[in-house]
Amino acid sequence: MSGITAMNSGPSHYRDLKEQKKIDPKIEKTARDFEAVTLGEMLKPMFDTVDTSSGPFGGGSAEKQFRSLQVMELGKQIANSGGVGIAHRVYQKMVEMQKGGSRR
User: Which domain of life does the UniProt lineage start with (predicted)?
Assistant: First the structure.
């Protein structure tokens, strides 16, 4: 993982913090949720172009209704499985912003 680091398999200093319980669980959850939503939004256009009407169980109005939910859940699964590194960067920035805000 060169430029991209995931929260579960990120750099050793991040794993060390996690093992020492210095990770704020609320900030971590918020960062992971942000990554899930971001990934879901990035996946939407891809799924909008997929034609499923030719499959035996594809197409129809019900599929159109639930497609957005499926895509958002896919984004959550990707984020919870380590993601693409967005949550790690967001976490770092949120902690940095909190420390800056507490100095005032």
Answer: Bacteria
Q: Which of 38, 66, 42, 72 is nearest to 52 (CA)?
A: 66
Is 16 domain-assigned?
A: no
Lookup: tokens for 42: 């990035």
In a domain, 12, yes or no: no
**What was the pLDDT predicted at 16?**
54
CA distance 10 to 19: 13
Does the pLDDT of residue 51 top 70, yes or no?
A: yes
Structural domain of 41: 30-51+58-102
- Domains: count for the chain: 1
pLDDT of residue 77: 96
